[in-house]
């Protein structure tokens, strides 16, 4: 479990990145950290990409139905305009944001804001997803979560797409994706090619 770093009275910002495959608990962990910040009477703002409307148009919602109010936005630079007078900024589904997100997070951290980001580190093809590699590089604290492989029960690190769509972005849930370990992921890809 991630324990928040101690911060002295001097306002110091940092960047936390929570990553992993689908169904690994990334959003659940983001919500947990943001609720703890709220309990500590810190001022919190939460953002998500406008395109993610799977569970709710505005709230950040985990696959376990835990939720927290958020502001859906089109571009990362909107965060700089909307995150005023805050101590903590939460960002969900970071892989869907534009390439400006790492610089936006860096600017927020330099202002003394704690930035907590959650997102997929790999897409359905097993390649680094969106700006997550850059966020991992600039993050001060990295948490990689694992799901459970639905085929063999081992730790899962890949998001296996069940259908045949090659679209880079295809929003979905358990009807569209499965969490799989490396071996079962590549076995599934080979079976699709037959």
State the CATH architecture of the domain at 14-146.
Answer: 3-Layer(aba) Sandwich
Overall residue-averaged pLDDT value: 88
CATH topology of the domain at 14-146: Rossmann fold
Rg, alpha carbons: 17 Å
CATH classification class of the domain at 14-146: Alpha Beta
- SS-based structural class? alpha/beta
Number of separate strands: 12
Give the biggest beta sheet: 6 strands, parallel
Spatial strand arrangement across the major sheet: 5-2-6-7-1-8
Task: Calculate the terminal CA-CA distance, rounded to whole Å.
Answer: 42 Å
Give the helices and strands as they follow along the chain: EHEEEEHEHEHEEEEEH
CATH superfamily of the domain at 14-146: P-loop containing nucleotide triphosphate hydrolases
The level of helicity is 25-40%
Q: What would a concise description of this structure say?
A:
This protein is of the alpha/beta class. The chain is 25% helix and 25% strand. It has a domain at 14-146: Rossmann fold, CATH 3.40.50.
Question: Could you please describe the fold and organization of this structure?
Answer:
- This protein has a domain at 14-146: P-loop containing nucleotide triphosphate hydrolases (Rossmann fold).
- It is 25% helix and 25% strand.
- It contains five helices and twelve strands.
- Helix 3 links the parallel strand 6 (88-91) and strand 7.
SSE layout and pairing:
Blueprint: E1 14-20, H1 26-39, E2 44-49, E3 60-61, E4 67-68, E5 71-73, H2 77-82, E6 88-91, H3 101-110, E7 114-120, H4 132-138, E8 141-145, E9 147-148, E10 155-156, E11 158-161, E12 177-180, H5 182-193
Parallel strand pairs: 1-7, 1-8, 2-5, 2-6, 6-7
Antiparallel strand pairs: 3-4, 9-10, 11-12
């Amino acid at each position: 479990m991630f324990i928040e770093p101690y911060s002295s009275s001097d306002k110091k910002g940092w960047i936390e990145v929570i990553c992993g495959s689908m169904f690994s608990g990334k959003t659940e962990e983001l919500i947990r950290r943001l609720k703890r910040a709220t309990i500590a009477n810190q001022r919190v703002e939460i953002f998500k990409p406008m395109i993610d409307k799977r569970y709710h148009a505005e709230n950040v919602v985990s696959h376990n139905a835990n939720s927290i109010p958020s502001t859906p936005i089109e571009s990362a630079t909107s965060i700089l305009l909307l995150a005023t007078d805050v101590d903590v900024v939460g960002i969900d589904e970071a892989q869907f944001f534009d390439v400006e997100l790492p610089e936006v997070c860096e600017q927020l951290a330099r202002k003394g804001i704690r930035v907590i980001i959650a997102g997929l580190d790999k897409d359905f093809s097993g390649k680094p997803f969106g700006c997550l590699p850059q966020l991992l590089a600039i993050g001060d604290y990295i948490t990689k979560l694992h799901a459970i492989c639905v085929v063999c029960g081992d730790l899962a690190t890949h998001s296996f797409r069940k259908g045949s769509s090659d679209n880079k972005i295809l929003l979905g849930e358990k009807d569209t994706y499965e969490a799989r370990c490396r071996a079962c992921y590549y076995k599934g890809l080979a079976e699709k090619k037959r």
